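job 3f2a | input accepted
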Amino acid sequence: MSVKGKPVGLTRPEYEYSIPIDEAQELMELCIGSLVEKTRYRHHVGKHVWEVDVFHGENEGLVVAEIELSAEAESYDKPDWIGAEVSSDLRYANSNLSINPYRQWQIADR
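job 3f2a | predicted structure (110 res):
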């Protein structure tokens, strides 16, 4: 289970916990909106790991990459396959993607 707090700049608190599968299934039944389906890949670039999410289902076509830094000002190598910075664009938050899937976005908005 992942719990994410409110962003402050590009930083936000995030907590991840392992939970029993039966509790996970019960929690899934409480969700509002559609399921956000994705496959996560990890790519090592320099001393950092980029997590690349390839979305499926209603968010098919969306690919988002994220890097975990110890501080916002920490330097890192940016691979040439990284596109626009969307950290502050709330459309890309999983909570939004569940109620406003990528497939429903207007082409001009992408």
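job 3f2a | The two ends are 29 Å apart (CA to CA).
job 3f2a | closed
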